[in-house]
Specification:
- Homodimer.
- It catalyses: (6R)-5,10-methenyltetrahydrofolate + H2O = (6R)-10-formyltetrahydrofolate + H(+); (6R)-5,10-methylene-5,6,7,8-tetrahydrofolate + NADP(+) = (6R)-5,10-methenyltetrahydrofolate + NADPH.
- The protein has two domains: 90 residues, 3-Layer(aba) Sandwich (Rossmann fold); 126 residues, NAD(P)-binding Rossmann-like Domain (Rossmann fold, 3-Layer(aba) Sandwich).
- It has ten helices and ten strands.
- The termini are far apart.
Length: 301
Amino acid sequence: MNTHKLIDGKANAARVLLQVREDVERLREQAIEPALAVILVGSDPASQVYVRNKILRAEEVGIRSLEHRLSTDTSTEQLLMLIAHLNADRSIHGVLLQLPLPAHIDELRALEAIAPDKDVDGFHSQNVGGLSQGRTVLAPCTPSGCLYLLEQTCGDLRGKHAVVIGRSNIVGKPMAALLLRADCSVTVLHSRSPSPQLLCRQADIVIAAVGRPRLIDASWLKPGAVVIDVGINRIEDDGRSRLVGDVDFDSVLAHVTAITPVPGGVGPMTIAFLMKNTVTAALAQHQALRSQSEALCRSIY
């Protein structure tokens, strides 16, 4: 295996987390203690693992974490009451609602209830709209992590043709917006795209986020492309269960300039950028409160 072709998500995430830890220390010197509240509704095993990993990373970088575990039969209104309480708590800087939610809960209402400045997942419509307009907002963690990997691998992205395979609200659409902001030419492929392989073969950069195991093989890629595989799919292979991406890793490795493995590629970056967003949110909220206080003093005196 040509290991020089692998984009090491763990190593890149470690660099991001080191910077986050330094930022947390600087904030603490200003008496600001970044805090992240995580809400888990129900007992989905995968969600429990994700939440545990997020809380562990928060502790490692010095972010205070609070976990709110709610029963599966929690109502939408009960969830909204908790979110409102966390929004009002100035000691909490980030609110993360772990998805998926139980089917009876209104997911859109719940996500929209989180204050935009505490929306460290970047899912609130105000942050989504701001991202599409090119403004500086809290952007979704997985696409942000993918962009970081691309910048570390490719350097200047200006003028490169990027193809995003998948148009989900969580990855595909915000990924396209971030790439546009980086001055890439962007094509988004989805289930209704004609001749997707032909279009994909024109790309310098391919981001696969479609949720279909090993869909993209060498026939989809031009020689020398850089590939970011966001897919995480569990399959049975030779009688054992294992994780694979949306890209047929073994068949494309010799064909590309660089590629993320699954696991060990994009996954670690998602949590790293959740921590980064929490620190960004803490600083922004502190600055907003200071500005409000200064404005109040000017109005009085």
